[in-house]
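User: Show me a protein chain along with its predicted structure.
Assistant: Here is one chain, sequence first, then structure tokens.
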Amino acid sequence: MDESHPLHAQSPYSASKIAADKFVESYNLSFDLPTVTLRPFNTYGPRQSARAVIPTVISQLASGKREISLGSVTPTRDFTFVLDTAAAFRAVLEAPLEQVVGRTFNAGSGNEIAVGDLARLIAELMGVEIEIRTKTSASVRRTPKSTTVLGLVRDL
């Protein structure tokens, strides 16, 4: 997904992100405020919320579980380490103003991985074998199918 990808509010969460981007853009256009929009893709790393997929898998395996529980394992994401996300913010801050003001930038690795493959990779790195159980419809958060983004990766 590059910066010119059409914005589609498929959920209230995505609508709030689009609204924030447009709010920043409006200040640039209305008041000539020098703004930049940076969109980090799926940042992970130390002190990340335990609700995110990577800490969820690690904590289940570290506690001795070998049968882990996840939601859908087929969506793909572009996971970006927190230091790389910080470097993207720094690059935007240090760039000449004429190169960044009024523009939008995506910050991601450009590498796509399915959630299930990610869980198996984490298990391999932790030296364990796992079985992945997907949560039943009764235990999975309820979101309309049309709002689920199955693939999300930054174009390089």
